[in-house]
TrEMBL record:
Protein name per the record: TIGR03619 family F420-dependent LLM class oxidoreductase
InterPro entries: Lucif-like_OxRdtase_Rv2161c, Luciferase-like_dom, Luciferase-like_sf, SsuD_RutA_monooxygenase
Ranges annotated as spanning the membrane: none
Gene3D superfamilies: Luciferase-like domain (3.20.20.30)
Annotated Luciferase-like domain residues: 1-264
Keywords for this protein: Flavoprotein, FMN, Monooxygenase, Oxidoreductase
Organism for this UniProt entry: Streptantibioticus silvisoli
The keyword Oxidoreductase is assigned to this record: yes
Lineage of the organism: Bacteria, Bacillati, Actinomycetota, Actinomycetes, Kitasatosporales
């Protein structure tokens, strides 16, 4: 199994981001396979849609947030081998030229270790702040992916869709990974899984320990994804999975490690990303938490 960890990006850990390089280096030395960031442009005071699209509240842990691209750049320069992932960037919020530039830079700095993961987002207020139509975010996601393919694929490059347009421009600087970095997508609904089946290199599901660990649900979603991939003319085995493991406050590392092992045994998922922001307040505490999870998974 490969176990990765979220960088100190949100909530109380965000106040310790000056130690991001130390966190990245120490967690890599402890045996982590990957380091990750998420994406939260803002947490609305009076949200019209709540976290995960349910209710009308957003956890306080999202009030303090730091820039994902900068954190990945710091982690890239402080490490040598770990993958550097996004689980997930809300891709429709970004102009594709700027998104491609940031991701290309990280892939080059890291020597080809970038694993970009995208989602369509759920917060209308975030889209309003970015000047983007929330109702058309799914279609915009498809065009962002098309534009990235074009920008990373040619020099000069251009893209023209119904929502996005990129003029013909010089693009000599390309990612190390060719023809492009592998693209992973978050998906829960059948519609979103259909997008993964058509065009993604990987799928990014989520569980919460101990609040929501639905192994049967994961298996059912993966079975549907495999079926959709076959319909799209793709080999299901070509679509990787990285499971995000969020940890509820008060949950011990033994339970986290046990959950990872159980999910692996039943689903065959090999790569896990652990996020301790709900459970650990400090960067030093997060380092120790990561070390303990890695040791317990290895010896359990």
């Amino acid at each position: 199994m490969r176990i990765g960890f979220a960088l100190p990006q949100f909530h109380r850990q965000a106040h310790g981001i000056a130690r991001t390089a130390t966190f990245a280096s120490e967690v890599e030395q402890a045996g982590a396979a990957s380091l990750w960031v998420g994406d939260r442009n803002l947490a609305a005071v009076r949200p019209s849609v709540g976290y995960g699209g349910r209710g009308n509240t957003i956890p306080a842990e999202f009030n303090a947030t730091t820039d994902p691209f900068i954190l990945l750049g710091i982690a890239a320069s402080a490490t040598r081998n770990v993958l550097l992932g996004t689980h997930v960037l809300v891709a429709p919020l970004y102009p594709p030229v700027q998104l491609a530039r940031s991701l290309t830079t990280i892939d080059l700095v890291s020597g080809g270790r970038l694993l970009p993961g995208f989602g369509v987002g759920w917060s209308p207020e975030e889209f309003r702040a970015a000047g983007v139509d929330f109702a058309r975010r799914g279609a915009r996601m498809d065009e962002v992916l098309d534009a990235l393919e074009a920008i990373w694929g040619g020099d000069p490059a251009e893209y023209h869709g119904t929502q996005l347009s990129v003029p013909l421009h010089h693009t000599p600087l390309k990612p190390v990974q060719r023809p492009r970095p592998p693209i992973y997508l978050g998906a829960l609904s059948e519609r979103a899984l259909r997008r993964v089946a058509r065009r993604a290199d990987g799928w990014l599901p989520v569980c919460v320990v101990p609040g929501h660990v639905d192994i049967d649900g994961l298996l059912a979603q993966r079975a549907l994804l495999d079926e959709l991939a076959v319909r799209a003319g793709r080999e299901p085995a070509a679509i990787d999975t990285v499971l995000r493991v969020n940890i509820d406050a008060g949950t011990g590392t033994a339970e986290v490690a046990d959950t990872i092992r159980r999910v692996h045994e039943r689903t065959g998922i090999e790569h896990f990303m652990v996020d301790s922001m709900y459970a650990v307040d400090t960067v030093d505490g997060s380092v120790e938490h990561a070390r303990d999870v890695l040791e317990r998974v290895a010896t359990g």
